[in-house]
Amino acid sequence: MTRFSEPRYRSAVATTAPTPPSPAPPATDRRTAKREATRARLYEETVREFGARGFAATEISVITDRVGLSRGAFYVHFTGKDEVLRELLSAEEQLIADAALASVGAEAAIRDLFLSVVDTVFAAEERIGRQLVRDLCAAQFRHEFVQLLSVEDHPLGLMLVAEIARRAPDADPVDLTMVFLTGLFGLLATDEASITDRRRRTDLLVDLVTGSLDHWRK
Fold first, then answer.
1. Of the four listed, 14, 63, 83, 201, which is most buried by Cβ atoms within 10 Å?
2. Is there a contact between 177 and 161 (Cβ–Cβ < 8 Å)?
3. Are 170 and 214 in contact (CB under 8 A)?
4. Alpha-carbon separation of residue 123 from 50, 85, 87, 90, 118 (angstroms)
């Protein structure tokens, strides 16, 4: 979210609202169905390993042994661990965006929307594990990972830009979104404190970012 191309991002959000990905076409034969099932199994096992051991410590050979495939078979379906993490990031951002938006009213203040995002991210820590959320946030500060991403991989950012533009038309929605998410992901990736302390810092981040709305109102 933090280092994508801003011109492409502005172009994408200028005319479109975030939309769910198109469903994959149905399998046309047994070979295709088997290939899709194998890929899904590899994805699930890799994500499970990320949660248990962390991204850095996850070994592809452990995953393929568990699935009963050769190590090379993994690379038939994925270019590497980063591709699995990219798909997981997009899926999790969509869940967070949908849940955060559903929990606030259509006319709620931007501050309430940001706080709802924070609440939903902390809920994701309980759902998929703090380690996995930390790895997803930290990855977005790695150049090699960011190169895999497109604007469409950031449904949370797209949702925030669209909602900020609607709720505060005088503000710059891209700047507010980028500053908020960069700060949020940075805190989540690096802060080892208790949830109480981390929550205090994320509340401060929300106050700082939403306080900047006065800049555009002048």
1. 63
2. yes
3. no
4. 18, 19, 20, 17, 9
Q: Please indicate, yes or no, whether residues 189 and 200 belong to a single structural domain of this protein.
A: yes
CA-derived radius of gyration, the chain: 19
Same-domain status, 59 and 94: no
CA–CA distance, 56 with 21 (Å, rounded to integer): 29
pLDDT digits (tens, 9 = 90+) for 62-118: 999 999 999 999 999 999 999 999 999 999 999 999 999 999 988 899 999 999 999
Same domain, 164 and 68: no
Token pair 């869940």: residue:
95
Domain end, chosen from 78, 105, 137, is at: 78
Q: Does residue 98 share a domain with residue 74?
A: no
**CA dist., res. 93 & res. 194, Å (int):** 23
Q: Kind and range of the H or E element at 94?
A: helix 81-102
**CB 165, CB 113: distance < 8 Å:** no
Q: Which domain holds residue 48?
A: 29-78
CB 2, CB 185: distance < 8 Å: yes
